[in-house]
């Protein structure tokens, strides 16, 4: 089976540029380059976990045209498996592909579903130039408060407020991989909610997990060191030790963060 091979494929179809990479024993990372090319400067990750009974897909990127690539991969390599979708948070760049899976179970935190219902159509209007295919806003159809565990599969989804109040994470307990969505970012986290104490708490809880790899919503596969760096940033915001973040590397996101939490330089 293809999944057992060491997998590293880069291909370009029209404007879709995608890298597919095997992670651990049962994970597959789909790294999309489309937003990087459009000036946002980030690659975006969709993460697949192949378990005993299901294929879990974390986040759905920019629409059906992007997610067709993931679906094709599943059709070829994991046929007849039931697909379960997970949304890590409500941002447009992580949920627009839900519509290609509207017959499937789509899981999120309760607040994430509420946020999609509240802001989804508006975001589709504002960022429509980035959509890939005909996007229809499809909110998750299965929600949880604290966590939901697939005991037989070794997969858990849990509330992890941070980047947004309804952010949630996925842990593969077998491969020891955490999919953290946009809660973990290089080089510094991006605040979209204003409670940075919740954010810090979530990142500190991540450090207590038995994990070897961390997959952020954007950028490279990492580990606990990136979580620690993100905690350091929040600690520095709290103590006011923030001068270094005016450096070009951090400046734009840092200034937006200060604005979000009502602090000035
Ligand atoms: Zn994002």
TrEMBL record:
<dbReference type="GO" id="GO:0016787">
    <property type="term" value="F:hydrolase activity"/>
</dbReference>
<dbReference type="InterPro" id="IPR001279">
    <property type="entry name" value="Metallo-B-lactamas"/>
</dbReference>
<feature type="domain" description="Metallo-beta-lactamase">
    <location>
        <begin position="43"/>
        <end position="218"/>
    </location>
</feature>
<dbReference type="InterPro" id="IPR036866">
    <property type="entry name" value="RibonucZ/Hydroxyglut_hydro"/>
</dbReference>
<dbReference type="InterPro" id="IPR050855">
    <property type="entry name" value="NDM-1-like"/>
</dbReference>
<keyword id="KW-0378">Hydrolase</keyword>
<protein>
    <submittedName>
        <fullName>Glyoxylase-like metal-dependent hydrolase (Beta-lactamase superfamily II)</fullName>
    </submittedName>
</protein>
<dbReference type="Pfam" id="PF00753">
    <property type="entry name" value="Lactamase_B"/>
</dbReference>
């Amino acid at each position: 089976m293809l999944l057992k091979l060491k997998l590293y494929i880069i291909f370009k179809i029209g404007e879709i540029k995608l890298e597919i990479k095997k992670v651990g024993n049962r994970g597959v990372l789909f790294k999309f380059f489309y937003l990087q090319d459009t000036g946002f400067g980030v690659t975006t990750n969709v993460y697949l976990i192949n378990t005993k009974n299901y294929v879990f897909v974390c986040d759905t990127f920019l629409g059906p045209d992007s997610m067709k690539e993931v679906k094709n991969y599943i059709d070829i390599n994991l046929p007849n498996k039931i697909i379960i979708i997970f949304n890590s948070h409500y941002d447009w760049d992580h949920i627009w592909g839900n519509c290609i899976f509207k017959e499937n179970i789509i899981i999120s935190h309760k607040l994430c579903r509420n946020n999609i219902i509240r802001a989804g159509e508006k975001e589709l209007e504002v960022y429509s130039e980035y959509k890939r295919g005909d996007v229809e806003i499809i909110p998750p159809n299965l929600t949880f408060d604290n966590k939901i565990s697939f005991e037989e599969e070794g997969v858990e989804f849990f509330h992890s407020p941070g980047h947004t109040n309804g952010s949630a994470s996925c842990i593969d307990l077998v491969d020891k991989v955490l999919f953290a969505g946009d809660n973990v970012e290089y080089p510094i986290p991006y605040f979209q909610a204003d409670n940075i104490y919740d954010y810090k708490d979530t990142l500190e809880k991540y450090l207590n997990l038995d994990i070897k790899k961390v997959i952020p919503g954007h950028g490279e596969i990492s580990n606990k060191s990136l979580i620690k760096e993100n905690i350091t940033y929040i600690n520095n915001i709290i103590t006011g030790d923030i001068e270094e973040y005016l450096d070009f590397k951090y400046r734009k996101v840092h200034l937006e963060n200060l604005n979000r939490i009502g602090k000035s330089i």
